[in-house]
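RECORD TYPE: protein structure
NAME: dUTP diphosphatase
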Amino acid sequence: MSDSSPKVGLHILDSRLTGWGFPRWGSAAAAGLDLHACLETPLLLEPQAPPALIPAGVSVRIADPGWCGLVFARSGLGHRDGLVLGNGTGVIDADYEGPLMISAWNRNPPGRGAAIRIEPGERIAQLVFTRILRPDFEIREAGATSDAPASGRGQGGFGSTGRL
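PREDICTED:
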């Protein structure tokens, strides 16, 4: 794993992106690179309908296995409008070089929530690059004498610590 930021190959697949200001971060301190909806026509996402795959118009080549990309929904669209990623968070492995697709889903309840209209070029997601750590596992066989956690946590099962 390298100690410095990786050189990431960025292949622009949709020529409209440069006119929309891509690539850019929303501010000098922003963690996420804005991803645009590379659609030909507006897309209407109805509440609770199946997620739609929206092309981001780019592919990346991270190459360094010590790094990956994470695709997140933009905060305002998720909170205000109900737009979330259909897969929660997208993971871009260092060896994936295909087109980035954004799985968009309208979490609003049917009959009570509004449809979400996504315009061509709209910034709908963000790509964050982060380091990866792969631990060395110490394999313990089931039924071993030391099955109890050394910390004592987990003895009562999932959620057993309760709330304060």
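COMMENT: The helical segments are 16-19, 75-81.
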